[in-house]
């Protein structure tokens, strides 16, 4: 899916995403279900960590009034009972901590990939690739206009199929910069971005 935004006459943003643009009831239900499961898993991990804390307090015989009341409330809640049944009855401490970490990473895992090309006339271009996790920063690079020698589309074999790449030739670098390297959109979309990027990047020639 390709979306194009033009904040100003000299700026254009091209974004490609693996996320479906469909807004059907099924897709919305899927999104809602995924979000609900993430929230439930997060609450379950929180309850498990509170149980770990409660066990540590029991071993040290340390209690802290109001804080202890909150811990006791979570420990004896339905989520606390579920967490104890799933993790504490049959798993040792190291295994539980490993499950907490993996679940935590899955909760914040991004369900789709998004890449963009921002073109600003007279300044340059900025490529961005989304991180696989919401907790990590996106991969971004800015290339000034003065270093851009050319923007072109070329074809190459990937396995047994031909793939098309939108590339930027940067002065002083041996390798080209591939735009949308993770998604690799179809040729028709790349041609649309290529034409628009070149038209926006350089000043139009006066008559």
From TrEMBL:
Keyword Transmembrane: yes
Pfam families in alphabetical order: PIG-H (PF10181)
Residue stretches making up the Phosphatidylinositol N-acetylglucosaminyltransferase subunit H conserved domain: 116-181
Segments passing through the bilayer: 29-51, 85-108
Keyword Transmembrane found: yes
GO biological process, one term: GPI anchor biosynthetic process
Pathway annotation: Glycolipid biosynthesis; glycosylphosphatidylinositol-anchor biosynthesis
Domain of life: Eukaryota
GO cellular component: glycosylphosphatidylinositol-N-acetylglucosaminyltransferase (GPI-GnT) complex
Keyword annotations of the record: Membrane, Transmembrane, Transmembrane helix
PANTHER family attached to this UniProt entry: PHOSPHATIDYLINOSITOL N-ACETYLGLUCOSAMINYLTRANSFERASE SUBUNIT H (PTHR15231)
Recorded family membership: Belongs to the PIGH family.
Name of the protein in its database record: Phosphatidylinositol N-acetylglucosaminyltransferase subunit H conserved domain-containing protein
Organism: Cercospora kikuchii
């Amino acid at each position: 899916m390709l979306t194009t935004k033009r904040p100003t006459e000299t700026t254009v943003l091209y974004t490609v995403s693996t996320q479906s643009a469909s807004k059907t009831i099924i897709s919305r239900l899927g999104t809602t279900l995924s979000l609900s499961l993430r929230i439930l898993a997060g609450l379950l991990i929180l309850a498990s960590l509170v149980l770990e804390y409660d066990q540590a307090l029991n071993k040290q015989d340390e209690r802290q009034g109001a804080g202890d009341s909150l811990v006791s409330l979570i420990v004896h809640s339905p989520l606390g009972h579920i967490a104890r049944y799933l993790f504490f009855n049959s798993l040792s401490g190291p295994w539980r901590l490993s499950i907490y970490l993996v679940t935590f990473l899955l909760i914040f895992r991004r369900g789709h990939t998004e890449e963009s090309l921002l073109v600003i006339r007279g300044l340059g271009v900025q490529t961005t690739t989304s991180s696989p996790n919401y907790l990590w920063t996106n991969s971004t690079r800015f290339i000034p206009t003065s270093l851009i020698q050319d923007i072109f589309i070329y074809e190459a074999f990937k396995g047994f199929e031909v793939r098309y790449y939108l590339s930027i030739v940067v002065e002083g670098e041996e390798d080209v910069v591939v735009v949308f390297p993770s998604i690799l959109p179809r040729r028709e979309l790349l041609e649309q971005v290529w034409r628009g990027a070149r038209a926006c990047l350089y000043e139009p020639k006066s008559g």
